[in-house]
Design brief:
- The protein is mainly α.
- It has a single domain, classed as Up-down Bundle (Four Helix Bundle (Hemerythrin (Met), subunit A)).
- It is built from five helices and no strands.
- Helix 2 packs antiparallel against helix 3.
């Protein structure tokens, strides 16, 4: 992949990382962990039903896990840019199409390998 193309994706990934970090900070109420935010959030409320409170708490933890996983994927793509392996499928070694990288710059697999992976996890 050409240097100019890599730089374009790097800028896109850095913006994506900044957006995710801002979103995490906003949802948590600053630079606190999800556990601390949850404790504060649920400690200040009127007592709800135990089931409702537990459901809301589980939802917050699930959102945190999803956001954290997305951030990890972006960070991994930035590491691949740094080590020169960006744009190459981690499974088969084929170049990932530019169209796919433009759509999802954090991707690590070509369409064929991604499809195989999804079928394997679905079945």
């Amino acid at each position: 992949m050409e240097q100019g193309q890599t730089e374009t994706f790097k800028k896109q990934l850095l913006r994506q990382r900044a957006d995710l970090l801002a979103q995490l900070a906003s949802l948590r109420g600053g630079l606190v962990s999800r556990v601390e935010a949850s404790t504060t959030h649920f400690g200040e409320r009127e007592p709800d039903s135990r089931a409702q409170t537990e459901t809301e708490r589980q939802l917050e933890f699930a959102l945190d896990a999803r956001e954290g996983a997305e951030l990890d994927t972006v960070e991994a793509a930035l590491r691949r840019i740094a080590d020169g392996s960006y744009g190459v499928c981690v499974d088969c070694g084929v170049d990932i199409s530019l169209a796919r990288l433009h759509a999802t710059p954090e991707t690590s697999r070509c369409m064929a390998c991604q499809t195989k992976l999804e079928k394997r996890h679905a079945g």
